[in-house]
Amino acid sequence: MERAAFLIARLLHAQGMSGSTGRSAGRFYGSIGTLLILAALSVLLLVRSLG
Fold first, then answer.
1. What are the residue ranges spanned by the domains of the chain?
2. Can you give the pLDDT at residue 17?
3. Nearest 5°: CA angle at 10, between 23 and 31?
4. Disulfide-capable partner of 33 in 1, 9, 10, 42 (CB 3.0 to 4.6 Å)?
């Protein structure tokens, strides 16, 4: 599940990068999605390693 979400976020970012220079929705949501997924997986990894 998390792999699919990460892949979708990265694809959105790539789509946003391929369009025009500057800001775009795909680039923004792809970056935010990637950041949130990496943060959630980092917390999950820490919880599993400590518990």
1. 2-50
2. 85
3. 40
4. 9
Half-sphere exposure of 16 (CA within 13 A, CB side): 18
Sequential DSSP letters for 1-51: -HHHHHHHHHHHHHHHHHS-SS--HHHHHHHHHHHHHHHHHHHHHHHHHH-
Q: Which residue in the block uniquely carries the two structure tokens 């025009």?
A: 20
Residue with tokens 């979400």, as numbered in its chain: 5
Residues 1-51: tens digit of each pLDDT: 778 988 998 998 888 888 777 788 888 998 999 999 999 999 999 999 998
pTM of this prediction exceeds 0.85: no
Comparing CA positions, the residue from 28, 7, 26 lying closest to residue 16 is 26
